[in-house]
Write a structure and sequence with these properties.
715 residues, alpha/beta, 8-stranded mixed sheet
């Protein structure tokens, strides 16, 4: 396959508030370093000579509590870059923990966006676990390489929160940590390359994941904006940032100890205040400036930020630091470079005392401003100080060590000048965005050379051109067991055959499904998805979709899956008639076998990229990672140019879940295995029927007014 001369790159960063200018960094926990990173990466890649186009996809937000900028569907940034906002979970601004149930909507809406473009992207680059979940599924659906940047990881966060004394139940209810970790594992299984900022991130964080593969890791440190961050010019005290400090400081000319972060307990700014307050020498020679986001009323802020700021004010009062500590209430994004330059002009130092710091972008900004640093010895600062040689590493919980390191810089001009000069020189050498883009594009060449994107489907001409909607259903749970309801359902399908495509999506093999269809008088399907999405056949001749079959065979190693699972207790291989080349099926005894999460973990540890489904409490099926009922249904919709909003998907067991999530209309029919789909109760456009089987589908057709002339809709 011919590879592109110039790249078309799709970045995805879903949560937080993202726009091209005046970033609201520190406004909340979701709008911080990642937001800045993806916007600057967008610009840097757009400037690269080997890149034709870069789009950054984020969530569409139209909410009175945020700026109208976040409701712009398309925001041009430069000539070949833009921010595109995708609907997901309504218009309200939501924290990232509340977005999990709508991410399938984001996937389907992104597929619509991609189909509307002239060309497919050459690579998808996801940021954080939520975008990783989306990116992995888009990669499987389209056959496009996936690059991922985690920014922070759920397993690391859970360990840290447990160490802080939170219970597992509290962590789960607040952070949805299990879903996050599962998404991270799925992302790592799909990613062709994982970009990290530091070696420590690989060794101490990704190493704890089941699907950790050292060969997929690439250390490419982010850059910093060297035009925006530069040494002082001498007039900084006349800026808004300078004027904001006068009202706090009795002797503003003293060396300034600067800390800049959002008000988060992990940033550990209270320890810095206590280090300053408990050192008589430090109090006598320097001022402390804490820039911790923006605030109006501390009492109305979210609990974590409110607690940090309250502790800050109490510490200032406890040590009687009035006149020596500044903590501006508001600042604009353009004030941030001025704070660094003010600290450098005063002969001061920048301190990052975070308990752990995944990277440490503020340290690069300080270095580019000619400001020496004192930083936590945990995480990214280790690499930064090694490369820039512009400061000291300290134990972030040792107040005396912090005070000693700061004093050794502010009281020794030779040390301070050497650190400042080395920082300026080395930040340009190691951390310019242009250098990052060069390494990034060079690293992409390997996964691009291996990739084989799924070709854009040529829309199949339907023999009945007026069909603008479709009904898809499983067989066993939805159509069998109540002959009267099946007869009523079959009559409904036949009466509407001019306008509706009828599809079967089953875990049964193709031949088994046909026998059941004929034996029970089920209408002949226009499309038959069998073996859990590994095969698709089309009427009238039930011709197989060979393109789909080649696509799902990606990274499938049936023999290795069998060798691993055949040895597990509680798993018995089903008869040969239930097996296929792309599906391995077992009976599972839950009392003896590992649970499904453990089975997935074992498969991931052996680097086997698969999907695992448990259904009816007794069946376990393993298929290639690109195969599922949901993936196959969306491939069909793409071929027929049929809107997902005009498809009614009916399910009754866990194997149907991804067919029902996202933009499809869906019905969960009532049956005793209903509990496998209880996780869908919070998802959009899913109706839980009171009738079982085919009767439940009929009930949903009425609920959605599915055969209405104006098209399906919810009551």
């Amino acid at each position: 396959m011919t590879k592109p001369d110039k790249l078309n790159i799709l970045l995805i960063s879903i949560h937080g508030l993202i726009r091209s200018k005046e970033l609201e960094l520190g406004r909340d926990a979701d709008t911080g370093g990642q937001t800045k990173y993806v916007v600057e990466l967008l610009r840097a890649l757009g400037d690269h000579p080997d890149v034709a186009r870069v789009d950054l996809l984020t969530r569409y937000i139209s909410d009175d509590v945020v700026d109208p900028d976040y409701a712009l569907t398309v925001e041009p940034v430069t000539e070949n870059t833009r921010i595109v906002r995708i609907p997901c979970g309504g218009d309200e601004y939501l924290p990232k923990e509340k977005l999990w149930d709508c991410l399938d909507d984001f996937i389907d809406n992104t597929l619509d966006y991609i189909r509307a473009q002239a060309d497919l992207p050459d690579v998808i680059h996801s940021h954080y676990a939520d975008a990783g979940y989306v990116g992995a599924r888009l990669s499987h659906q389209l056959g496009i390489p996936l690059v991922h940047t985690g920014h922070s990881l759920g397993r690391v966060k859970r360990r840290r929160l447990l160490a802080a004394g939170l219970s597992r139940d509290d962590i789960e209810s607040t952070y949805e940590i299990t879903r996050r970790i599962a998404a991270e594992e799925e992302t790592l299984s799909a990613a062709d390359m994982v970009i990290t900022s530091t070696r420590q991130e690989i060794e101490d964080q990704y190493h704890h994941y089941d699907y950790y593969r050292p060969d997929q890791m690439r250390v490419i440190p982010p850059g910093t904006d060297l035009e925006r961050f530069h040494p002082p010019t001498g007039d900084e005290w006349s800026t808004e940032a300078g004027r904001s400090l006068y009202r706090f400081l009795t002797e503003p000319a003293r060396p300034m100890i600067l800390a800049l972060s959002r008000p988060d307990h992990r940033k550990n700014i209270i320890t810095l205040v206590e280090a300053f307050g408990s050192s008589k020498r430090l109090r006598s020679v320097a001022n402390l400036v804490i820039v911790a986001g923006n605030r109006d009323d501390i009492g109305e802020m979210e609990r974590g930020a409110s607690g940090v700021l309250t502790d800050l004010l109490l510490a200032v009062d406890r040590y009687d630091l009035y006149g020596r500590v500044a903590y501006p209430k508001q600042h604009a994004p353009d004030d941030v470079p001025d704070y660094y330059r003010l600290a450098a002009l005063s002969g001061g130092v920048f301190v990052n005392p975070a308990l752990t710091e995944p990277f440490g972008l503020t340290l690069l900004e300080a270095a580019a401003s000619g400001l020496p640093v004192v930083a936590t010895e945990d995480g990214g600062p280790v690499d930064i100080i090694e490369n820039c040689r512009n400061g000291y590493l300290v134990d972030p919980l040792n107040e005396r060590a912090i005070a000693r390191a700061v004093l050794s810089i502010v009281e020794n001009r030779e040390v301070r000048d050497t650190f400042a000069a080395d920082g300026l020189k080395n930040v340009r050498r190691h951390y310019a965005w242009s250098a990052h883009a060069d390494k990034y594009v060079a690293a992409l060449r390997v996964p691009l050379a291996r990739s084989e994107p799924l070709p854009r489907p040529e829309p199949r001409k339907d023999v009945r051109p007026y069909r603008d909607r479709a009904v898809f259903t499983d067989i066993d749970q939805n159509l069998l067991g109540d002959s009267e309801s099946l007869r009523e359902f079959s009559n409904m399908i036949r009466a509407n055959r001019r306008r509706v495509t009828f599809g079967i999506a089953t875990g049964r093999r193709f031949e088994s499904a046909l026998r059941i269809i004929r034996a029970h008088g089920i209408p002949h399907p226009d499309v038959l998805i069998s073996s859990l999405g590994t095969a698709i056949h089309y009427a009238p001749g039930l011709e197989p979709d060979l393109v789909w079959a080649r696509h799902v065979d990606h990274l499938w190693h049936a023999g290795e899956v069998r060798r691993l699972l055949d040895e597990l207790p509680g798993l018995i291989l089903q008869p040969a008639v239930e097996q296929s080349a792309l599906k391995i099926s077992y009976f599972i005894d839950p009392a003896l076998a590992p649970d499904v999460a453990e089975i997935r973990r074992l498969l991931h540890q052996q680097e086997l990229a698969v999907n695992v489904f448990q259904s009816f409490g007794k069946f376990l099926d393993v298929v290639p990672v690109r195969a599922s009922k949901g993936f196959a249904l969306r491939w069909f919709a793409d071929r027929r140019d049929l809107a997902l909003e005009h498809i009614l998907a009916a399910g009754g067991s866990g194997t149907d879940e991804d067919m029902m999530r996202g933009n499809t209309l869906a019905v969960v029919v009532a049956n005793r295995h209903h509990e496998e789909l209880t996780g869908l109760r919070n998802a959009n456009q899913i109706y839980f029927a009171e009738r079982p089987g085919a009767g439940g589908i009929i009930e949903a057709v009425d609920h959605f007014d599915f055969f209405s002339e104006r098209g399906p809709h919810e009551d």
